[in-house]
Amino acid sequence: MALFEARHLSKRFGDRVVLEDISLSFEKGQLSGIMGPNGAGKSTCFNVLTGHFPPDRGQVLLNGEDITGLSPRKIAQKGVARSFQIMSLFDELTVLENVLFAVPEMRRSGMNPFKSVAGDSASIDKAVKIVEQVGLAPNIDARSINLSYGQRRALEIAVALASEPRVLFLDEPTQGMGAEGRDRLLELILSLKRKFTIIMIEHDMDFLFRLADRVSVIHWGQVIAQGTPDELRSDPWVKRAKLGAPADA
Amino acid sequence: MSLYTPLIANAPGGAGARAQAWVTKPMLVTLVLLATFPLWAEHVGLYQYLGIEVAVWMVYALGYNLLLGYTGLPAFGQGAFFGAGAYAYGLSYLHWGQNPYLSLLCGMLAGGAAAGLVGCLVAHRRGIYFALLTIACGQVFWFLAMKITSVTGGEDGLLNIHRPEALKDNVTLFYFVLVVLMLAIVLLWRLVHSPFGKALQAIRMNETRARFVGYNVWLTKWAAVTLSGAFAGLSGGLLAIGQESAYPDVMSVHSSGFIVMAVLIGGGTVSFWGPVLGALVFIVARDLLGALTETWLLWYGLLFMGVVLFQPEGIAGAFQHYRAKLAGRARNKAPPPTIAPEAENGSV
After folding, report:
1. How far apart are the first and last CA of chain A?
2. Beta carbons of A112 and B214 less than 8 Å apart
3. ipTM of the complex as predicted
């Protein structure tokens, strides 16, 4: 059984149909990609899967459990974490704190005024490990607003990892990054592959094909092709539409 | 400059240790300065009752800053909870056996309950909508206090809430309020450094992110509104002891504005101690300016505008800048690092 599954999702905004009967399934431990041109409905698909919008029709299943229409918080608490296409961090906070806030034990300790954040060394140790894992150890005390673009991307991923996700969604991780940053990010995501179930939207086809086990191509709100990167390279649809080719290529 | 004390990885001491402490140096300084007030107040032309109002407003302002400073929620109807606390104190004191401690608890609960109710309506909002809704809710309470004459005494207020024997004179009452203030300070200090306090600040910085990380944003904001309302109710009860009465005037929009101005002038957006400074400046300015001219609010308003224009981070902010400057100067005085000539030419 697939760990995460979408069945017959439909979503419209006004009279614009953005998703039309989309079904996707993601296996545990795999890195799955979603690609498609701008405006194809990728981000909406992501937003529906992670609870940002409820779908008009269809179901979202996590490990067989129906999570359709639950709030982002509930979905997050069930173990679905995401990074944002538009980077969304706590700017005033340091790298460590951004990660620490997402550690579930920290969140769950809730309103106890007799507990001190600075004294919760178990959570802090955990956060430090995650910061090291994404290669931000030298910047651990830097405020996130002072990080470079690529470092902020890595921090986005670290924040998502901190919640010990069962499923990790990455929304266009390479967006706005130069070639060098892209290579470093590729390494980071490769190092996470197999440890987590990752679902990634990306319109950089090369980047995605080097990482993904399976890729689904979305266009006009529908899944038009699905398969391993090798299968897709020879797919006439993908070839013809040059989907995902960088605009400047 | 920020309200937020960054947590530095693996660095014992400094900000991290202070954030874990129950009692800090500024607390002791505050305690000493305030505790000696009755000894020197009259020598500098002040009077004993003033100390009570200052300490009461400090409790009020500290509680309010949980919303304004920490959660970034501009509440403009806080006076409603302050007033609710005063009325609840007065009514329970008059009708339930004249026990001031029980009545203060009633005041605190009434402030918290009123705020909890308002919180249900406003907790899903932020920014300007939050502000407008709190004004509207505050007005409802003010209107009720004015109109339910049989309970609240209407425009005249609730009179003849005589002080209990034990707290009869101003100095004793001042020390009582001071104890409450210090307890409030310690409690709030712990609260803002607890995971809950950090969640408040996370919501201020990025509400969407906080939600996706798994925080219950609505409940956290509601709790902040309710808690700060409870502190307002507590301080309202204390004021009712001091004034021996409870008036609807403290619930009006312009009275609610005072607490916002006081906290901003003090620097509540950048410092835990901002509200304490702000309450001090506000009450003393009200008294000194008020003694000179009837139009003291005009001058206080101009002072407020000056602060917003030239020192938006308030007194505490100015102090922090000054300290940062001093630290910078000290660093510049240190001998410059010696650089090998080839490195100087080679790098950059």
Report:
1. 39
2. no
3. 0.72
